[in-house]
Amino acid sequence: MSTYERIKELQKRRNQLLKEIFAFRLMIPGAFKEVYRKCGKPNCWCHDQAGHLLRRITWSEQGVSRSKAIPAQDVDWIKNATRNYRRFRSKRREMQQLDKVLKALLDDYEKEIVEKSRLAKDYL
Asked: Which pTM was predicted?
């Protein structure tokens, strides 16, 4: 396959990736977890048990780890939002890799065209 054809194939894949990336309408960075936490009250039942169920999302903001409790009715929503964010980041990484390959192919294409152009005139 020629360099030109490979560039066209990469461009098609790149356009498809962009469509997939722009399809995400709901994204929240972070990780959703269900953990058990003791409240610290000495008379509470959790003192001798695993603890109270806590649904939370954890993320990093400017190098600082943050955490926020999630109400039970929003669990599905937050799971979907964090899953979409992970997929978005994955597709973004794939796009970056494609751009690196595309740049290298464009460099090769430039060399091919310059070489062919020089062969057209014997004084170049």
From this structure: 0.78
